From TrEMBL:
UniProt source species: Bradyrhizobium yuanmingense
Protein name: Iron ABC transporter substrate-binding protein
Span of the signal peptide: 1-24
An MF annotation (GO) of this entry: metal ion binding
Entry GO CC: outer membrane-bounded periplasmic space
CDD domains per the UniProt record, alphabetical: PBP2_FutA1_ilke (cd13542)
Entry binding sites for Fe cation: 222-223
Keywords for this protein: Iron, Metal-binding, Signal
Matching Pfam families: SBP_bac_6
InterPro entries to which the protein is assigned, alphabetical: Ferric-bd
Transmembrane segments: none
Family to which the UniProt record says this protein belongs: Belongs to the bacterial solute-binding protein 1 family.
UniProt superkingdom: Bacteria
């Protein structure tokens, strides 16, 4: 009798264990190719796995992921591609390695301005291209992008290469709003106001303002916060500057996206879609805001306190897709005016 009870109990345990294993196996996995540093987004993946039981496998690189996916073809293991900047997003679409994201949840949460009209990509967080202004030498608290070409700033602006994807997007936005002829005129004026040859990155723009080489630098919103809160060595560069949210005349502040795409040959398409939907959830959006210092695309999610300290962001209404459509024109204009020379 005792033997039978033990046998029954063992069978029950075995049944529960088998059920658990089967459930875990059914949840499966999702393969992510990402341009974001793994350490920055691993907490998101860990939280997703905890919520769903889906394992996340990550391949991280600084360049070439869309070319890798294209070369892998139908055998590509990629389910999802995470990118930084509309430039990388557009390159992946142009490479033909994506498919439409069919999700009512994504369409409901992400504003149309931050989604591909054909559904191939969606923004999951925003960053703005802003001014790092010297606390000592710049008295203005408002600056327009158009004003950066004003001769009053001659010899006072620091910026990274005009061909960098962050600047390319800003220049493409200008071309989309005003046309190529006016964009060329503006770029010539901006070039004439540079304190030095474009170089370094956004952090170095703040460094050079702190060193007195220029009065204003151009950078993304999150770099300033990272220097102030996460990098003691570079904190003095942030302390010497303040962030001004510039706007287009009659418009808002230029924003760009961290975006997500569903791979054309995704072997785990359902799980890829689940991950994309999870990334626009309230939990994930709050994590993006607090850990990466980016603006949520989902309304109602609090902006990180440091970023909120810049002032209220009013994004320019120009659809990101129109910026993507002007990327090549912007790159050509940078070469035409010799911006990086």
């Amino acid at each position: 009798m005792i033997y039978l009870r033990v046998l029954a109990a063992s069978a029950a345990v075995l049944s529960l264990t088998t059920s658990f294993v089967s459930e875990a196996a059914a949840n499966g996995e999702v393969n992510v190719y990402t341009y974001r540093e793994t350490k920055l987004i691993q907490p998101l993946f860990d939280a997703f796995t905890k919520d769903t039981g889906i394992k996340v496998n990550v391949v991280s690189a600084s360049s070439g992921l869309e070319q890798r996916m294209k070369a892998e073809g139908a055998n590509s293991p990629a389910d999802v591609l995470l990118t930084v900047d509309i430039g990388r997003i557009d390159e992946a679409v142009q490479a033909g390695v994506t498919q439409p994201i069919k999700s009512e949840a994504v369409d409901k949460v992400v504003p149309a301005q931050y989604r591909d009209p054909d559904g191939h990509w969606a923004g999951i967080s925003m960053r703005a291209r802003v001014i790092y202004a010297s606390k000592d030498r710049v008295k203005q608290d408002k600056i327009t992008y158009e004003e950066l070409a004003d001769p009053k700033w001659k010899g006072k602006i620091c910026i990274r290469s005009g061909q960098h994807i962050y600047n390319n997007a800003l220049f493409a936005a200008y071309a989309a709003k005003y046309g190529e002829a006016k964009a060329e005129e503006w770029l010539r004026g901006l070039k004439a106001n540079l304190a030095q040859k474009p170089s370094g990155g956004d952090r170095e723009a703040a460094r050079d303002v702190a060193a007195g080489k220029c009065d204003i630098g151009i950078g993304n919103t999150y770099y300033w916060a990272l220097m102030m809160n996460n990098d003691p060595e570079k904190k003095p560069w942030a302390e010497a500057t303040r962030v001004i949210l510039p706007t287009f005349e009659g418009g808002g502040t230029h924003v760009n996206l961290s975006g997500v795409l569903l791979a054309k040959n995704a072997p785990n398409k359902a799980n890829g879609t689940k991950l994309i939907e999870w990334l626009v959830s309230e939990q994930a959006q709050q994590m993006y805001a607090d850990q990466n210092y980016e603006y949520p695309v989902r309304s109602g999610v609090a902006v990180n306190a440091t970023i909120a300290g810049y002032g209220k962001l009013v994004p320019d209404p120009l659809p990101i897709a129109k910026i993507a459509a002007n990327r090549k024109a912007a790159a050509s204009l940078v070469d035409k005016v010799g911006f990086d020379n």
